[in-house]
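Hello again,

I reread your note about wanting to compare the complex against the isolated chains. To keep things tidy I'm splitting this into two emails, and this first one only covers the full assembly. Below are the input lines as submitted, including protein chains and any nucleic acid or small-molecule components. They are followed by the predicted structure of everything together. The single-chain runs will come separately.
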Amino acid sequence: MGKDTVPRTARRIPDASIRRLPAYLRALEAEAGQRLTSAALGELTGFSSEQVRKDLAYFGAFGTRGVGYPAQDLASEIRHILGLDRELKAALFGAGHLGTALARYVAATHRDVRIVAIFDPDPEKTGSEIAGTAVTSLVDLEGEVERLRVAVAILAVPEAAAEPLARRLAAAGVRGFLNFAPVMLSLPPAADDGPPVTIHNIDLSIELQTLAYFVQVHETARV
Amino acid sequence: MGKDTVPRTARRIPDASIRRLPAYLRALEAEAGQRLTSAALGELTGFSSEQVRKDLAYFGAFGTRGVGYPAQDLASEIRHILGLDRELKAALFGAGHLGTALARYVAATHRDVRIVAIFDPDPEKTGSEIAGTAVTSLVDLEGEVERLRVAVAILAVPEAAAEPLARRLAAAGVRGFLNFAPVMLSLPPAADDGPPVTIHNIDLSIELQTLAYFVQVHETARV
DNA sequence: TAATGTGAACGCCTTCACAGCA
DNA sequence: TGCTGTGAAGGCGTTCACATTA
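Full-complex prediction:
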């Protein structure tokens, strides 16, 4: 997880709570039912019912005592909280296997997130299309990013390319990064004048090597 | 992140500490130098020096007071702690774009993790090779998994396929899962007789939608 | 002197327990 | 009666501060 630079909003909401909201949303959308109790929602998502209630209560009183939560409305509320009632404009960088998989996945499953551009320096790739979006060269990167009002960047590029690219993008106004390159992006000595930049790192190596630890530990700790 | 079923080992080590070890390892391997202080290692990884010292101290006294840590030896120690001094045998499921990207990445960057098998039901794919490993059909899945002594499974399969597959694999002795499918794997009513299963979920939707929240919040909270 | 190793303080998040309300 | 909403308690991890040792 990247730096979280959450400003002093009304009451401080735990990052952990925010990370659970998408799970609730998914469960609510899958469950076509009318009403759901916190216990039911907990069952579906793997969290405790208290956890569910506390998370939701940070944002308002959406439930009815003795009854539960209205599924449809709660889904809308969560979408609103996450900012998914307005389309999130994302640009993808890197049209390799990973980038292609990501573009297709997002296009197939996220109405609320739109990949407005795909960038790749390889001339063999530029001009082609992935999931309906053209692959573009990096000439006039900044111009395109500003023109398309790209809010977040998904980085599926080689390790060495990630940081310089991210710096350019941050300077061009990109506010969020989903980084798949195995590097700690240290972006800005950055500003407290401009809006903060959020970075989420997804690092396969960390997951794999951590998994190795747990698998191995359990082996030894055989009771 | 999945359930963590850590047994009562000697002293309890925070999961968070373990998740930082790979970052230290990466920094140590990149830095060819002789010695490193906790401050230097912190600088390279983005963590505080106290954090670095505390994390390492859970496992032993690897440093020299007044001097720092020996880079080479510390790297070996961390590899040992993570269990990366023995090869981790992994099987990949799903030979689509995501699976292909994962297989190539692991083969290119991890000496310590070996993908010993790639499974995909598509007859067009079986028989081909990805990063030197043949793509196999799912006939005799259990037999192959046991024969190859697969310790962890990487799931790059469609949502619906993930859970039934994971159940079969867990039954066949797979102990760790890296799940890229957007589902909460609820594996076992599982055993307390057998060894525990560790699940790490990597969920693009959660990351994207959480990112949407932070980007949006900052927009509103403009000072 | 310089940097590690570590008890103690702190803060954040989760869990508990129950008051409040349909 | 049943389930939500929430203050209080508890637990876990990070930060602080310093004693320790090459």
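For quick reference: Chain A touches chain B through 68 residues (CB under 8 Å).

B.
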